[in-house]
Amino acid sequence: MRWIFAHRLNGASTASIARALNDRHIPPPSARDPVRNKHRTGTAWTLRTVTEILANPRYTGRQVWNRQRTDHNETVPGDKRTSLGPTRAWNPRSDWVFSAHRAHPALVSDADFLAAQAITAVPVPRNGAMRRYQLTGLLICGTCGRRLEGHWVHGRAGYRCRHGHTSTRPHDQRVHSVYWPERHILDPLLYSLSYEGELPLFATVDDLLSHLQTRDLVIICDVTALRLETEEKELPPTTIPRWDDFGGG
Description:
By secondary structure, the chain is an alpha+beta fold. It has two domains: about 1-60 and about 105-120, no CATH class; about 140-245, no CATH class. Helix content is about 25%, strand content about 20%. It is built from seven helices and eleven strands. The strands form four sheets. The chain has a four-stranded mixed sheet with strand order 5-9-10-11. It is extended.
């Protein structure tokens, strides 16, 4: 555990930490101590395992209470007779209760633990401005079928899919990632004359997005090409021109 925290504090990603542990054939908690980890059945380190270790304050030696609660999921609030069955849920970190004294030897100092939490914080622009990804939810990976995630690069919005292979797989086992700058998707849709009969000309991006959403249209993103489909079934092949067709750089 000390090794995990040390590498995180040196700037290693959770994926690289998990990959290094697997490469060294170090068993994860579920394999090393299955009795105490009945909720885990994996035989390899995953992103979730590393992330949970880095976020667990018990490695500072302190006891922690009130981390979870039981929700009874009543259809009539307060009436347990209408419960759909209890489920466990995490309380906000601000509601956790920590022991004033250490209950067992610490594997990481309080300062290092807090520093590791800061590393896992979601990065925000230096000027505090909110980043807007206009195509969120409308882009589907043509390779694996996942929705593309927003990815801010060089001050501009883009979208990518790494097909779920970002966790712990060796680099030589990965499929080529799909990546599209946002403007390379929007400009062909807004300005391409080849869409006569397929898409009208739009005055604004909001008009285009509203058209796609109300008609259940999504954009399928392959490595080098784009096409439109409905959520339920594929439309006749409709290829979106590449940004290069407009002379863009």
